[in-house]
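User: Can you predict the 3D structure of Hydroxyethylthiazole kinase? Sequence below.
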Amino acid sequence: MDKVLIGQALERVREVNPLVHNITNVVVTNFTANGLLSFGASPVMAYAEEEVAEMASIAGALVLNIGTLNSDVVESMIIAGKAANKNGVSVIFDPVGAGATAYRTETAQRIINEVNIAVIRGNAAEIANVAGEQGQIKGVDAGDMQGDFAELAAATAKKFKTVVVITGKEDIVSNGDATFVVSNGHPILTKVTGTGCLLTSVIGAFAAVEKDAVLASVAALISYGVAAEIAAQKTAELGPGSFQIEFLNQLSHVTIENLEQYGSFRKL
Ligand code: ATP
Ligand code: TZP
Ligand code: MG
Ligand code: MG
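Assistant: Sure. Here are the predicted structure tokens for Hydroxyethylthiazole kinase:
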């Protein structure tokens, strides 16, 4: 993997303008739609069990996010996930708050068991809990969990035969064999709700145009992290509100040249 391939993936997202079907949470719905639009993808939110199979089948990617789950929405996720699998549509999963309640942990594991997932993206605690380990979580936010996150990502990827992305100060991407670390991003991202959820949907936008889920994930993390760095610099004296708006601007502005200059990743 190199920056040329990463830049080409970004270019393809902008050319194709992929349809990303999101079944996501009520907190982040508007931010996710605006972030995807700004970045160059085409978002749709559709939840009714009467229509999700049809929508998922025509999408470029399906994003499942259990942030404000309930039993109806979980059934819709399973129906949509199976339809996506049948039609070769990549499914990206964000196990928001796994470990905070038994219902979240069990639902996350059920979705992974019943749907073929291309990428699971969460904070370290969510991924640990999904994998059946203990991870300290405070609602939907990662506690100060310590440990070898690269090892956790690789083991979880192997266990579920998928690609696992663990985000935080540094981001890890692993398919169980190859593991990459991405160092872009900015701490102010943790002061705006939904920045993890939007990232998961941006991974969906890349997965719609790039079947190598490791490359799609690394390209998404770098593009997203670099856009955040530029936005943070432009709003340095302000605060999370101004950052949030400037971040949406920079998601549409971020270029291949920016990725070349500021992109920071390494293979372990
Ligand atoms: P949490 O709820 O624990 O904040 P999340 O689902 O919101 O998790 P994050 O881990 O915050 O997701 O990741 C969202 C984005 O923020 C990613 O691009 C990640 O790289 C970035 N990020 C998170 N923490 C930091 C940090 N300390 N420094 C730089 N970037 C960060
Ligand atoms: N509560 C349920 S979902 C949600 C909150 C606050 C949003 C979480 O978003 P993120 O991207 O994990 O910070
Ligand atoms: Mg967050
Ligand atoms: Mg999250």
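The chain has eleven helices and eleven strands. The two ends are 12 Å apart (CA to CA).
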